[in-house]
Amino acid sequence: MPRIAAYDDVKDGKKSRNPPGGGTSWRTDFMRPPEGVKEPMAFLAEGTPHRVIKPHFHEVDQFQVIVSGGGVIGKHPLSLNAVHFSRAHTPYGPLTGAEEGVGFLTLRAQWDPGAQYLDKDKDKLVAVPNRKPWQVTEAPKFEGNADVNIHAFNDIKDERGLAAYALKLAPNAQVAGPDASKGNGQYLIVTKGSVNYQGKEYKAISIGFTKPDEGYFPIVAGPEGVEALVLNFPRLEMAKAIVPEASKSKELRVWQCLLCSFSYDEAKGMPDEGIAAGTRWEDVPESWICPDCGTSKADFDMAVVA
Ligand SMILES: [Fe+2]
Q1: Distance of CA 64 from the midpoint of ligand 1 (Å)
Q2: What is the pTM (predicted TM-score) of this model?
Q3: What domains can be seen in the chain, in order of their start residue?
Q4: From the CA of 120, how far away is ligand 1's center (Å)?
Q5: I want to staple 55 with a disulfide (CB 3.0 to 4.6 A). Which of 2, 20, 93, 107 is the partner?
Q6: Protein residues with C-beta less than 5 angstroms from the ion ligand 1
Q7: How far is the CA of 169 from the centre of ligand 1 (A)?
């Protein structure tokens, strides 16, 4: 049976701490398995303004959803309700909160030991076999005037069942959530309004989880309707390793970061950052910072991929 927890049910468990990046952070657990148990792990993380979470990675696939304030991951702006997906062993960051701070949900299908920082644990990261690092950030579209409106995210998808949807339901409208059996578990995030489940109303923010063998979440909008995200984890098949081939060609090339998979196409450059089309990787300034994982060029392990 799918489970669900509302913020009101869990808010008394809010804990504060002083993380390595400075400032103060608060954590409110919605779902917390015992250490090492492969059960879903969902919590709200909040922090003081301008808090910086250093570039790091996790051992499992992860969704993050911005629920208050804003900020950036690397150079990617984080708007309200934006979803960031990072595959297991993909470094991302730094995550920097804006003036109003940033609150985000961290959502995993199974337990993870916590952030492992790129500055200390890079060797461990590089030693992981068959790593296929990848991350993506996308904001949802809660649109439409039908009783049930569902928009699939454009970029949050892969060949193993990764998918994300934005749902907008009129008051009391009902729909079976997308099929959870094709992935590795599925979160339902109530971002506005409420859903009714097993005789109780769950207001935003509520977090539901459906295991693959539980089929789907029965979504029933509350009296004011609901806006919700459905986040489907990919199956845990072994990813194929990227095997870069060195090229001695004088043609313009595409480079890929071996840590976070960011790619740099010499033909396109990065005009937004003042790097003209046609600039070779060796001519990109040493002060350049990776937009995905925040590493400086000097620390980058790049390989030619095309
Ligand atoms: Fe993290």
Answers
A1: 8
A2: 0.87
A3: 3-138 (2.60.120.10), 148-232 (2.60.120.10), 254-304 (2.20.28.10)
A4: 15
A5: 93
A6: 115
A7: 31
